[in-house]
Design brief:
Number of domains: 3
Shape: elongated
Distance between the termini: 73 Å
Number of helices: 11
Helix content: 25-40%
Number of strands: 13
Length: 326
């Protein structure tokens, strides 16, 4: 017995080192997400269950196995990701650790498509977790799309605990600035600003508006107007009519960041959308191709509701003129 204890301790130390070096790559899509684990010598349903915070009976059932049959070295197990061990929210108890789960970007994938495949992760979350400053993704790059929730005292993976929570402090500060800037258009607020800011830093006030919220300068046309103008200078513009529908989005209402889906323009490019009836224009970034669902039948452009509101459109479907770089 005394000889066995040092051996078990040595084995645990070796496993902790090996697992703490391992990147966990998520598999599956939608509601059927899982990890793959190759069984090491001496492992069983209970030790693997503790490692991934999943009940042994659930682990056996998911792999069409029985608990009394046991496991063998090198056996490939699928680890189900469910309510107990998978999360896409950065909150946990003091005894839990959140371990990043990665997806490797494939050719042609977009940030929106990746989020949609993994239970509709908001784009803002993906960009926060991966410290991204734009919507562009590159093939072959591993991206965090969720987290394995484990017990710190039972799982060697706890050594890989996510350390990026501090980034959550930054976005609210930016949003506060964006909300304040448009208020300068309201006369009473503008007068107050003039008393305290104009004489000291008039240039900086303008610079802040241009850098953080171009929408405040472009009116309702949106954040991406300048980016479109720069691309348009390169030539290759195409113009056509589009039957347009609307999707709900939380983006654009305060920051002027309008988005759309299109089968014509490439993801990440900017489209100019004009409605002649209201003589209004907005600029929207293409997230992806139009989702193949019934409500999009016969539609050639799907636009965020914030953009439609800026265009003065109230109908579910309407005709618009679109300009884009082919």
């Amino acid at each position: 017995m005394h000889k066995l204890i040092p051996f078990l301790l040595f084995t645990f130390v070796i496993q902790t080192f090996c697992y703490s070096q391992e990147r966990l790559n998520i598999q599956g899509a939608g509601n059927d997400l899982y990890l793959e684990h190759s069984v090491s010598p001496g492992e069983n349903f209970y030790s693997v269950g503790r490692l991934f915070n999943v009940a042994p009976k659930d682990l056996a059932s998911y792999n069409n196995l029985t608990l009394n049959k046991g496991l063998f070295s090198g056996q490939l197990l699928k680890i189900p990701l469910g309510r107990n061990n998978f999360t896409q929210a950065l909150n946990q108890s003091s005894s839990e650790a959140l371990v990043p789960l990665y997806h490797t970007v494939a050719s042609g994938e977009t940030l929106f498509r990746i989020g949609a495949n993994y239970r509709n992760v908001p784009l803002e979350n993906l960009k926060e977790w991966n410290q991204m400053n734009s919507d562009q993704v590159n093939r072959g790059v591993p991206m965090i799309v969720g987290f394995l929730k484990v017990n710190k005292n039972e799982s060697a993976f706890a050594k890989n605990e996510f350390r990026g929570q501090v980034r959550n402090q930054n976005p609210p500060v930016k949003k506060e600035t964006v909300v304040v800037e448009p208020k300068k258009e309201i006369e009473p607020v503008k007068e107050t600003k003039r008393e305290s800011v104009t004489e000291t830093q008039p240039v900086n006030v303008v610079q802040t508006s241009n850098t953080n919220n171009p929408a405040s300068n472009a009116g309702k046309e949106g954040f991406f107007k300048q980016q479109y103008s720069e691309a348009a200078n390169q030539g290759g513009l195409k113009s056509t009519n589009a039957i347009t529908s609307v999707f709900k989005s939380t983006s654009g209402w305060d920051d002027g960041k309008y988005y759309c889906f299109s089968n014509d323009a490439r993801p990440g490019s900017i489209m100019k959308i004009t409605v002649s009836s209201s003589n209004s224009t907005v600029y929207a970034k293409v997230l992806d191709a139009i989702p193949e669902i019934k409500q999009n039948d016969g539609v050639t452009l799907v636009l965020s509701n914030a953009a439609a509101d800026a265009l003065g459109v109230k109908d579910e479907k309407f005709e618009a003129i679109i300009n884009y770089i082919k």
